[in-house]
Request: fold
Amino acid sequence: MTWPTEGVPLEDVLEPLLKAADEEDEGSLDGAINDVAEALAALGVLIVDGSGQPIPGVTDERAVLGALATYGRNLAMLGRLDDALEVTELMDRIDHRQNHKGRPRTA
Reply:
């Protein structure tokens, strides 16, 4: 994942998703995933492979998972391990939903 948006904190972009994570309503989570994926696209954030090449056709969920992974790593490096664990749990929840849906949504 590349983050070319100096001045726009990743936490701000992820805020709708982080708020929806506390709710039991799966519709809120779906809406937050879409909102965050749209924000990532609008900011020009790319999901890249190991060689730095953009990955085409990334689903909304996959884009959000990439952003959450980056955010979780940053939290862990800052010593905010409890927060990093919560991000990991949210990633697991999204990944589980993605693997049990009929059709993926693309960003």
